[in-house]
């Protein structure tokens, strides 16, 4: 069995004349958790959008299980997309639907299962994320952490081979955030999924990453385990892991403060 689940080759993206991604080459191995890390505006979310097929790059190739999705039309991509789960940063639950209806939506859209079977599977997924008995609640009745769990239940409704997460801990307090991290680890073990996560949360990186891809200005600055990146003698990498401010930002802020003070 091929050990590579996702392969990205020479990926380039322009927004107008601005180059967002500049020659990305990256592989994601079957069964691993890869975290895409980097400063705001470095291209993390753009890269994620390309991998899940929401937008096409300007140049390059993205292969998922050996299939180049950048060369496929929507109908050709559908069988591949069905085996991909996506947890959006906001959760993206439909407020007009109950929690159960949100989780059941992919099963209704992409399968021919009986309604009774969909109901059973929906309750199973909610139980797996710690929301047993909440299928009749509306999203507005849930806390932030519960909404993320409900969105995660929907993301795994089709038993995906690959799970993508965009800032899964964003907006959550540290206790709830670590609970989401533990849940992701639990689901990975249960379903043997390949997981790709975009995050700023260093605590999550240390807890759940098998490998880290650190992006900087549209390029991969470093790739490896957390320990390997920490051992690299690169000021930008050390700055990120040690949570040190950017000297240019500090100088700029001091200059602006001097103007205000003057």
How does this structure look, described?
The chain is α/β, with parallel strands linked by helices and 262 residues long. The protein has a single domain, classed as Rossmann fold. The chain has helices at residues 44-51, 74-81, 99-110, 115-128, 144-155, 174-191, 202-208, 226-230, 235-241, 247-261, and strands spanning 4-15, 18-29, 33-38, 59-64, 67-68, 84-87, 162-166, 194-198, 211-216, 219-224. Strands 6-7-8-3-9-10 form a six-stranded mixed beta sheet. It has a four-stranded antiparallel beta sheet with strand order 2-1-4-5, covered by helices on one side. A hairpin with a 2-residue loop joins strand 9 and strand 10 (219-224). The termini are far apart.
Summed up:
By secondary structure, this protein is of the alpha/beta class. The protein has one domain (33-42, 80-261): Rossmann fold. It is 40% helix and 24% strand.
């Amino acid at each position: 069995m091929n050990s590579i689940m996702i392969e990205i080759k020479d990926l380039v993206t322009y927004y107008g004349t601005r180059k967002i991604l500049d020659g990305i080459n990256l592989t994601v191995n079957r069964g691993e958790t890869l975290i895409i890390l980097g400063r705001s505006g470095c291209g993390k979310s753009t890269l994620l959008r390309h991998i899940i097929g929401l937008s096409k790059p300007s140049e390059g190739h993205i292969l998922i299980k050996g299939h180049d999705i950048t060369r496929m039309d929507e109908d050709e991509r559908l069988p591949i997309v069905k085996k991909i789960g996506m947890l959006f940063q906001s959760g993206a639950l439909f407020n007009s639907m109950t929690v159960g209806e949100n989780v059941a939506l992919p099963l209704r859209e992409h399968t021919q299962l009986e309604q009774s079977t969909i109901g059973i599977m929906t309750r199973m997924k909610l139980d797996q994320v710690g929301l047993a008995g909440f299928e009749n609640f509306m999203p507005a009745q849930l806390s932030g952490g519960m909404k993320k769990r409900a969105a995660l239940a929907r993301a795994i409704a089709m038993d995906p081979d690959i799970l993508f997460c965009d800032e899964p801990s964003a907006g959550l307090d540290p206790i709830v955030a670590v609970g989401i991290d533990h849940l992701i680890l639990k689901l990975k073990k249960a379903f043997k999924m390949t997981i790709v996560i975009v995050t700023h949360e260093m605590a999550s990186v240390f807890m759940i990453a098998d490998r880290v891809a650190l992006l900087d200005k549209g390029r991969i600055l470093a790739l490896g385990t957390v320990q390997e990146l920490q051992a690299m003698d690169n000021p930008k990498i050390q700055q990120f892991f040690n949570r040190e401010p950017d000297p240019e930002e500090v100088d700029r802020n001091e200059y602006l403060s001097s103007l205000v003070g003057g």
